[in-house]
UniProtKB/TrEMBL annotation:
GO terms for molecular function: maltose binding. This is Sugar ABC transporter. One of its GO terms (biological process) is maltose transport. Residues 1-23 have a biased composition (Polar residues). It comes from Labrys okinawensis. The lineage of its organism: Bacteria, Pseudomonadati, Pseudomonadota, Alphaproteobacteria, Hyphomicrobiales. The keyword Transport applies.
Amino acid sequence: MSDVLSRSTPAVGASQSGSTAPSRRTFLQGAGLAAGALALGLPKRARAAERTEITFASAKFFGKQTMAQVVDAYNQSQGKIHVTYVELPPPSSSTEVHTALVQQLARRTGTPDVFTQDVVWIAEFAGAGWALPLDEYFNASVQSQFFPGLVAACTYNNKLTALPWYVDSGMLFYRKDLLEGIGAKPPQTWDELTAAAQEIQKSGKADFGYLWQGKQAEVLVCDLVEAIASNGGSILTPDGKSSALSDDKAVAAVQFLYDTINKTKISPSDVLSWDEEPSRQPFTAGRAPFLRNWSYVYAIAQDKAASSVVDKVGVVPLPHFAGGKSAACLGGYQYGVNANTKNREAAIEFLTWMSSPATQLQFALQLGIAPTRPEVFEDAQLGKEQPFMKQLKSVFTGATPRPVTPKYAQVTLAIQSGVSKALVSGNIKAELEAASAKINAIVAG
């Protein structure tokens, strides 16, 4: 067994922020399960012989609470199933997480029974026959309770093969004070963003206008998905069998990104080597009015020790082209059930608890993980304790998945290479046509 996937439940300790993590009862009470646990009188080490044993492998997340505590809360809430938590590396080490899961799922031994997966692996795992179709357990009525974009991302060949867990997506951070200074509102179109960025730059109140991520990496694909979808285009055709990257709408979107550096000059050429953090730092240092990034930026922007723009930052959906709609690249991890699990009903029961509104609320409050159920965003407690997260419902409503294909690992490399060449050379149409040819060869192979 891979060292990464050796079975262990790490000791509960301090959270990443240094505060002491709440007890398991805190989670049980928050999820409305304390009474059941107390009635059962289950000790922490309860592993009665009659309990069904399953394993749950998940990337490592930190907050006021750990994933180990969440699993512990479930074990204490009932007496039928015992879940052993298998800790994987954090999402920042996604290659290692992916490798560990592939090694285990490919063995078809049924371990782990339940797992979490990056949204871009769903088609790969389903296409390989490693993920159990879930439609018979979570019907259309249940699926309608999640963000539609996430359900689409969790669907492969018209079958639900993953269940939404948490969501993140690209969004536009903006300086409220700088926009107010020029009498402007948050931009809804890319033209409005460009005009406001240029005016603020000209006033000398910002060094840069718009910061984004153009590094030849996965984040470039995310930025690309948003730009193209906001122009009504896509990277793959709807059937996923051919490239649409050289279509007119996609070409125009990439041309816009190139122009931010070379024509309108609202972005520095450095964006071509930037991923998330290098692009975030000038923004929180007060050097730009606009930044495309993920939700984590807001907490840093409000930290007086790390930010020069405390209480000056707002967030809205990303702009769109004339006639288009805002699009936010879908991120986050989702649940899967091993197609070879020997404990299918127990796995589904655990997954039902993990995806419930009550548990999602606790994930939001204790781990800072955004819910995938729109109804949870309306909870008064969430609005009181996580007001920024409550604002994100409108952003996540427009979440757009990256290309859905079992060959995503190959497709993304072709996209990154082709688009990077286009952004450097300015030969947009030619480079996107070359990239499309490579993508067609991959998805047809």
